[in-house]
Amino acid sequence: MPTNPTPALALPVGTTLDRYIMNRQYQFAYATGELSQLLRDIALAGKIIHREVNRAGLIDLTGGMGIENVQGEKQQKLDVIADIRFRRALTNGGEVCAIISEEEEGIILTGNNGGKYVVAIDPLDGSSNIDVNVSIGTIFSIYRRVTPTGTQPTLEDFMQGGHEQVAAGYILYGSSTILVYTTGHSVNGFTYDVSLGEFILSHPDIKSPADGQIYSCNEGNIDLFAEPVQAYLHNCRRQQLTARYIGSLVADFHRNLLKGGIYLYPPTKSNPDGKLRLLYECYPLAFIAERAGCLAVNETESILNIQPHSLHQRTPLYLGAPQMVKQLTVFVRQGMSAQRD
């Protein structure tokens, strides 16, 4: 007898992001609904960017703007669009009083002085890769403001330090679009179901492997790295580890988070302070990494322990499986000891 297809067709869709957030409000330090709404606003902007990324080649959204942003980097069309989309979503949501973005020099005031949160965001990391269909992403960090509610937010609201983040996450636009975030408890991933227009829980309680076989680094710059980092990379090759480097921070981090690996962006002779931005790239990814069992350091200390002093502050970053990061720090310490001797 033929089997009845109805049960298979009626299988549960899964837990939506909205439902998950509502069910987990008890984990929030201030469970009055504002942070839940803020996360939904970010998810909405992510859906819009998903749409723009997927039709970029059809409506001439690829390529550069012909100008540089405040970082001195060539600005892509999608950089500008993503910055506008996230700024608009966070402003219209009403929960955010101020934003800092990779694309803007100073603090962006939303006019919502009654909002309780500030957001640091890289609207579209790796956007130059869109021209060749390589994964790109959004990185965000959320703080509860320290200035009085109702007043105009200031730089102080963003200079709290990595440990004071109340939530952080990223959205990866790749073969599928996935939103990963944490509020300081578990790390969870939600894959975007285009047919439903919903993010569905697909990666609950992510725990990263303690060790790995992947190292992610732009080895084209190896001659510019300090000798201890060069020695570590040579050791990776001797161990026949797998080199995987996409050139999109979110994509490289996401792969290593799930499979086990280390991401390296060392300082160079031309960038002695490193190149990645502390507030809206390194802090949020370090916050996620530590909650998933990884480590994030700048060679000598935890990324989350670094004291911020400017909006676009840069830092070296070594991020990933704890065993691999610890091995790297051994090479760095030995190098420092040899220099002293």
TrEMBL record:
<keyword id="KW-0119">Carbohydrate metabolism</keyword>
<feature type="binding site">
    <location>
        <position position="218"/>
    </location>
    <ligand>
        <name>substrate</name>
    </ligand>
</feature>
<dbReference type="InterPro" id="IPR000146">
    <property type="entry name" value="FBPase_class-1"/>
</dbReference>
<dbReference type="InterPro" id="IPR044015">
    <property type="entry name" value="FBPase_C_dom"/>
</dbReference>
<keyword id="KW-0378">Hydrolase</keyword>
<keyword id="KW-0460">Magnesium</keyword>
<feature type="binding site">
    <location>
        <position position="124"/>
    </location>
    <ligand>
        <name>Mg(2+) 1</name>
    </ligand>
</feature>
<comment type="pathway">
    <text>Carbohydrate biosynthesis; Calvin cycle.</text>
</comment>
<protein>
    <recommendedName>
        <fullName>Fructose-1,6-bisphosphatase class 1</fullName>
        <ecNumber>3.1.3.11</ecNumber>
    </recommendedName>
</protein>
<feature type="domain" description="Fructose-1-6-bisphosphatase class I N-terminal">
    <location>
        <begin position="16"/>
        <end position="204"/>
    </location>
</feature>
<feature type="binding site">
    <location>
        <position position="281"/>
    </location>
    <ligand>
        <name>Mg(2+) 2</name>
    </ligand>
</feature>
<feature type="binding site">
    <location>
        <position position="122"/>
    </location>
    <ligand>
        <name>Mg(2+) 2</name>
    </ligand>
</feature>
<feature type="binding site">
    <location>
        <position position="245"/>
    </location>
    <ligand>
        <name>substrate</name>
    </ligand>
</feature>
<feature type="binding site">
    <location>
        <position position="122"/>
    </location>
    <ligand>
        <name>Mg(2+) 1</name>
    </ligand>
</feature>
<dbReference type="Pfam" id="PF18913">
    <property type="entry name" value="FBPase_C"/>
</dbReference>
<dbReference type="InterPro" id="IPR028343">
    <property type="entry name" value="FBPtase"/>
</dbReference>
<dbReference type="InterPro" id="IPR020548">
    <property type="entry name" value="Fructose_bisphosphatase_AS"/>
</dbReference>
<feature type="binding site">
    <location>
        <begin position="125"/>
        <end position="128"/>
    </location>
    <ligand>
        <name>substrate</name>
    </ligand>
</feature>
<keyword id="KW-0479">Metal-binding</keyword>
<feature type="binding site">
    <location>
        <position position="275"/>
    </location>
    <ligand>
        <name>substrate</name>
    </ligand>
</feature>
<dbReference type="Pfam" id="PF00316">
    <property type="entry name" value="FBPase"/>
</dbReference>
<comment type="similarity">
    <text>Belongs to the FBPase class 1 family.</text>
</comment>
<feature type="binding site">
    <location>
        <position position="125"/>
    </location>
    <ligand>
        <name>Mg(2+) 2</name>
    </ligand>
</feature>
<feature type="binding site">
    <location>
        <position position="102"/>
    </location>
    <ligand>
        <name>Mg(2+) 1</name>
    </ligand>
</feature>
<dbReference type="InterPro" id="IPR033391">
    <property type="entry name" value="FBPase_N"/>
</dbReference>
<feature type="binding site">
    <location>
        <begin position="263"/>
        <end position="265"/>
    </location>
    <ligand>
        <name>substrate</name>
    </ligand>
</feature>
<keyword id="KW-0963">Cytoplasm</keyword>
<feature type="domain" description="Fructose-1-6-bisphosphatase class 1 C-terminal">
    <location>
        <begin position="209"/>
        <end position="331"/>
    </location>
</feature>
<comment type="subunit">
    <text>Homotetramer.</text>
</comment>
